[in-house]
Amino acid sequence: MKNLLFIILFIGFHAIGAQKLSDYKYLLVPQNFKDFQDNQFELNSALVKKLKAKGYEVIQNENGILPEELKQDPCQAAVVNLVKSGNIFKTKLTFEAKDCNNKVLFSQQGASDEKDFEMGYNEALQNILKSIPNSLPLFKTSDVKVIFVEKTEPVVVKPLEKIEPSSIVEQKAEEKTSINNSQNYMNGNVNLKKILLGNNRFILVSANSSIPYATFTESTKEGVYRVVLENGLMTLGYLENGNYVIEITNKDGSFRKVIFEKN
User: Fold this and answer.
1) How would DSSP label each residue in 222-244?
2) CB 3.0 to 4.6 Å from 110: which of 48, 127, 224, 235, for a disulfide?
């Protein structure tokens, strides 16, 4: 008897309990902060330069292209932001770093008495940078590969036994449970299997490929996921009527839905 089995190979190590900014290797720094567009006052470039000096690998790819480590696990990166927090009497700036679940890992405010905005914000940033710790990452390289193999089991002939009616009922119940736990999803002719990875993550993978079609990581909103596709692009996915929906960006910037129906 041949059964199709899958084997999940984890190469390297995942992060263990990353709870502070210094645990991270990668920082996602947007090219345009909401409060400071187009590198206003050169805050963006000054911040990136200092973070690199502290050992962080800064990612600023707005097109979603990521290193291999982040393709498999987006939670290996913290997201950075600079926010205006002053008033007419004092120039203030707040630095925030959050994890993939939007939890604040590090927050620090800097202030300046300078009335000139450019000088004031840069002085506030320099005060903040003194408090940012060096990178001492817990994260190591991690890849996920799924290998499907055929397992041949010997056929054992057993003596005939008397089967009680209750045993037949129990056996049918077990078979029904097994069917109900099936984790197969389809989109047209594409048939994918859902495989749980732990740490609020799962993948959809084809039996014909060792690379996941999509890796899902739970967000802070129930039923909504951060998704990394097999080509490395990041997008959103969500659960709708028991099916998984992935938003794909078209060339014109609009979105289309790709639906994987449970079967």
Assistant:
1) TTEEEEEETTS-EEEEEEETTEE
2) 127
Segments in 80-150 forming alpha helices (H): 117-129
> Of 74, 20, 105, whose CA–CA distance to 218 is shortest?
74
Place of tokens 């309990």: 17
* Gap between the Cα atoms of 75 and 227, Å rounded: 11
What pTM, to 2 d.p., does this model score?
A: 0.49
* Furthest CA-CA distance within the chain: 93
Inter-CA distances, 205 with 130, 163, 239, Å: 45, 40, 17
Buried b (16+ CB within 10 A) or exposed e, 70-92: bbbbbbbbbbbbbebebeeeebb
Print the SS3 string covering 159-192.
Answer: CCCCCCHHHHHHHHHHHHHHHHCCCEEEECCEEE
237 within 8 A of 245, measured Cβ to Cβ: yes
The H or E element that residue 72 is part of is: helix 68-72
Interval 232-261: pLDDT, tens: 778 889 999 989 999 887 777 777 889 999
Distance in angstroms (rounded) separating the CA atoms of residues 23 and 25: 7
